[in-house]
Write a structure and sequence with these properties.
41% of the residues lie in helices and 12% in strands. It is of the alpha/beta class. The strands form 7 sheets. It has a 3-stranded antiparallel beta sheet with strand order 5-6-9. The structure holds one RNA strand.
RNA sequence: GGGGCCAUCGUCUAGUGGUUAGGACACCGCCCUUUCACGGCGGCAGCACGGGUUCGAUCCCCGUUGGCCCUACCA
């Protein structure tokens, strides 16, 4: 009776991995991890026209990059392999083994029936009903008696299969986030569970709502956590569970993520695919945090997180604190500014070793040849950046001497008074931070100048512009020889 | 059209039948400072509207408006 918690994320490979999907996956993952359960990745590729292997790879890679590891599911990049006892985890590979027998069973038990209505039939009937100002429902209302429900057709002619839905009463969904939602049975009609097959007979490819239920039952999913755009599908699925005689899992429908203008998050709001966020230089940990905090308010001892410090939860804290009861019912707008803030904070908190593998992707090949202590310094002095891309930008001066110089800066800082000082700097040999500082103090005092004057002039010579990491770090990163070469041109 | 969901600062949100309606991000200002940043301090700003219930509603009920979802042999 004490079944382990099992959640699943079931994307359809019809395009990029959407940020909203990642959030749903994250909630499933957090919930499973919190309860020591299993998290399943299942690919819903029954949309024959849009599903592709490339899209499946994109999903696998996106999930892996986000750190959402799955206990059961496909082996990334290997279509014919999977881990877990309930495979395969791609629906098209489960046709003959799972779905068709399940459809046949319902047919045999009289809970479903073959429907020979063609699309054209249905369209004509729909038009007729709508012309009368009514809502079309298959075999109901004005369409009553026109469907195939009681015709008892066999499979001798290719036919779709419809589920017999209850005609009265309410189907109620006990949602862990939304509460109880009742759907009048008479608002639903007999829906198609299997499409018309191409061949002469048999059973066609089952539809989404059917496969989901068969899979969730087979995979022993205990908690169906998904986007609330599925709320209206749930009564159909509940009826199917009933037809099969299976217990219902718990349902939790998480609110949508909207764009800044309140419309559904789409391409025109900027980035929607997880890959784009990766390319913008966000840390996966920041994506997880930002996504989790959309619609979810962590409570510490019953009190919502308050300070900025508390907002910056680690994965371990999120897992420990996660509770569906603290998930909002309403949709949330995606706030890029907050993501950037979180990203910056997490960059500041991370060790250089944690950042390096992510930062490397934004670096030129020369990065790889640098020793660890150099990388450590380079990362430490750019951890003020908002994202990895910006950090990489701060280090551009390391890879090539500047070829262009900021005119205003040259005019302002490359004064005649500073040149003799620059000559003394070139002669310096000890580049340890404290040694440089001591030497600078001595030189500056002798010339009656301020550090600012020297530092800015050096920045112009070294970087071509008056902006760089702290000047002693900048010099150390370049090394004595390179500093001498770049400054030498000005004296 | 029908069905469903939702509604506190610009954004994410806390919250209670009586509160100066709290926090975070953003924004603005000041401070710090070797540049850019970081950081510190402070400030601006909100209960969608209309009815009820009540001594009293941001909170409870109804309605309106608005937003989103579903309404496929898509998922």
């Amino acid at each position: 009776m004490n079944r382990p918690i099992v959640t699943r994320f079931a994307p359809s490979p019809t395009g990029m991995l959407h940020i909203g999907g990642v959030r749903t996956a994250l909630f499933c993952w957090l919930f499973a991890r919190k309860h020591g359960g299993r998290f399943i990745l299942r690919v819903e590729d029954t949309d024959l026209t849009r599903s592709t292997d490339d899209n499946i790879r994109i999903i696998e890679a996106g999930m892996a990059w986000c750190g959402l590891d799955w206990d059961e599911g496909p082996v990334a990049g290997e279509p014919s392999r999977w881990v877990g006892p309930h495979g395969p985890y791609r629906q098209m590979m489960r046709m003959d083994s799972h779905y068709k027998p399940a459809v046949q069973k319902l047919l045999d038990e009289g809970k479903a029936y073959r429907c020979r209505c063609t699309r054209e039939d249905i369209e004509a009937r729909r038009a007729a009903v709508e012309a009368a100002g009514k809502v079309f429902q298959y075999n109901r209302g004005l369409d009553a008696g026109k469907g195939c429900r009681d015709k008892g057709f066999n499979g001798s002619i290719p036919a779709a299969v419809r589920l017999k839905m209850p005609e009265s009463g309410d189907i109620v969904l006990h949602d862990l986030i939304k509460g109880d939602i009742a759907f009048p049975a008479d608002s639903l009609d007999d829906w198609i569970i299997a499409r018309t097959p191409d061949g002469a007979d048999g059973i066609g490819v089952p539809t989404y709502n059917f496969c989901v239920v068969v899979d969730d039952v087979d995979m022993e999913v205990t908690h169906v956590i998904r986007g609330d755009d599925h709320v209206n599908n749930t009564p159909k699925q509940i009826a199917l569970y009933a037809a099969f005689g299976h217990d219902l899992p718990a349902f939790a429908h998480v609110p949508m993520i909207l764009g800044a203008d309140g419309a559904k998050l789409s391409k025109r709001h900027g980035a929607t695919s997880i890959t784009e966020y990766q390319a913008m230089g966000f840390l996966p940990s920041a994506i997880r945090l930002a996504l989790a905090r959309l619609s979810w308010t962590p409570k510490i001892d019953g009190r919502a997180v308050e300070t900025a410090e508390e907002e910056l939860l680690t994965d371990a804290e999120m897992i420990q604190l996660f509770d569906l009861a603290d998930v909002q019912k309403s949709a949330a707008r995606f706030d890029m500014a907050k993501l950037e803030w979180m990203n910056q904070k997490l960059i500041q908190r991370a060790t250089w070793q944690e950042i390096e593998p992510h930062l490397a992707a934004f670096m030129p090949d020369a990065w790889k040849t640098k020793p660890d202590d150099w990388k450590a310094k380079a990362i430490q002095c750019t951890q003020k950046g908002k994202n990895l891309k910006e950090m990489a930008g701060f280090l551009e001066f390391c890879w090539a001497a500047p070829t262009e110089f900021d005119e205003k800066a040259v005019e302002k800082f490359m004064t005649d008074a500073i040149k003799p000082v620059l000559r003394e700097v070139v002669a310096l040999e000890d580049y340890a931070h404290d040694a440089l500082e001591a030497a600078f103090n001595r030189i500056l005092e002798a010339h009656g100048l301020k550090l600012k004057d020297l530092a800015q002039a050096l920045r112009v010579a070294l970087c071509g512009k008056p902006v760089s990491p702290p000047i002693f770090d900048t010099m150390a990163l370049l090394g004595r020889e390179e500093v001498a070469a770049r400054v030498g041109k000005w004296v």
